[in-house]
Amino acid sequence: MSIFIERLEKVGRETSDPIGFGTSSKENDRFSDMIIIGKIVFEELLKTNNDLDDNVDAILVSIDSSDIKSLKSVSSLLTDRLWGVKSKSLTVDQLDHLKENGCDFIVFDIGKTPAILLSDESIGKIARYAWGEDYHTIVGHRTEKLLKWMREEHGAAFEAKAYVDTGPVQERVYAQHAGLGWIGKNTCVINADLGSWLYLSEIISDLPLVTDPPALDQCGTCSLCLDACPTDALTEPWVLDSTRCLAYLTIENKDSIPESYRQDIGTNVFGCDICQDVCPWNAKPPVQSSGTEFLPRTSFDQPQLVDLWQRSDVEWRRTLKGSALKRASVVRWRRNVAVALGNSATPEGLAALDENPPESPSCNDPLVIEHVDWAKNRAGRKT
Q1: What pTM value is reported for the model?
Q2: Residue 112's pLDDT band (boundaries 50, 70, 90)?
């Protein structure tokens, strides 16, 4: 049990002295039913010489997430003390590092608690855009209907072509110039009313249409998306190193996932929404489509990692059909699930990795075997 929790329970059990004429046996008895926490920024902690205040119950270290691994250099100052940190974001690796160095508690601003602290580690995380039917098909059909209506309304023939993430078109740039939204620091198009949970499609034509003013940037000084990215793929505002992005690593990448990024993947098995989850413009619930096409498929609605691993190759191909999830092959799916099981380190997950599902030759693929071995070693270290 955390020392912090023990202290909380102790405070809860203590009762204040009855009102009367008695005197306090301790000078600070008036605070006996309170926890007193002293705050210090990490840079100041580095300058201290073991002269931290002994009159506080706990120490709160305000620290940037990039400095968390440096805490080890001052861990001796925090030995035998109740201490915690306040940071804007956390990755799986950073959370493990805090645990290993004796951190007792973590503080976040209300409404900005990282998803890692709230998530069920037995569930595989899937990017929102791929929850339902393949958006290329659904949005493409709707865009073609719009183009048909335009031809009927205009009467005279004109040149036009529709795209839904299917051609060499800078969709985000055109969306900003069309006034649909601005390109955020996370490189996603953000609409002031809808946030960034959007699908983009476009019709390129030679019609002399009336133009709208471009959307203006409204990110301001916010940097939550940059701070939250577990692999620092957002190297600076508006700049994404796609080879470090979890979406690339779990979907487009056909090879081994670099070991330096595997812990950061957490339980993400297909894509990543972290930089959008933390965006203040997405604070409102996403606007749902009028249809049901984009609602999560039953087979991928909060899927248990163990269930994903135990599916046969035949079942995998069947459940991926008609979905954007088919972008990753069965072998890549197993690779991703193996990494996630290693990071979650549940007893059920480790047991599942010891047995290959029936009719699943993908489990014998060298790529899968390599990541299963890593997962077992990672889980062993974590437990």
Answers
A1: 0.72
A2: low
